[in-house]
From TrEMBL:
The keyword Coiled coil applies. This is Metal-sensitive transcriptional regulator. InterPro entries: Metal_Tscrpt_repr, Metal_Tscrpt_repr_sf. Residues 1-28 form a coiled coil. It comes from Amycolatopsis pigmentata. The lineage of its organism: Bacteria, Bacillati, Actinomycetota, Actinomycetes, Pseudonocardiales. Belongs to the CsoR family. Pfam families: Trns_repr_metal. Keywords: Coiled coil, Copper. The keyword Coiled coil applies.
Length: 93
């Protein structure tokens, strides 16, 4: 079971909202809106995705990684490495 299962509906709702922001960006380009206005909306969508990513990462650390650490062994090493790699990707983005 995924560590975010309890929050799945809330996560889906947020992703739909972000999807709406992206569709709004497409509309803005189609309608030849002012570049700065589009960039402002890109920034808002980016922040929304970053916020979502951080919450999902927190869920992963508190659930999957902690559970694996309690068990120990190879599984713990794998989960910690996965989390470290995910954090590195988020920092670079």
């Amino acid at each position: 079971m995924a560590s975010y299962s309890a929050e799945k509906d809330a996560y889906l709702k947020r992703l739909r909202r972000i999807e709406g922001q992206i569709r709004g960006l497409q509309r803005m380009v189609e309608e030849d809106k002012y570049c700065i206005d589009i960039l402002t909306q890109v920034s808002a969508a980016t922040k929304a995705l970053q916020s979502f990513s951080l919450e999902l990462l927190e869920e992963h650390l508190a659930g999957c990684v902690v559970d694996a650490a309690r068990t120990g062994g190879r599984e713990a090493e794998v989960k910690v490495r996965e989390a470290s790699d995910a954090i590195a990707r988020l920092v670079k983005s």
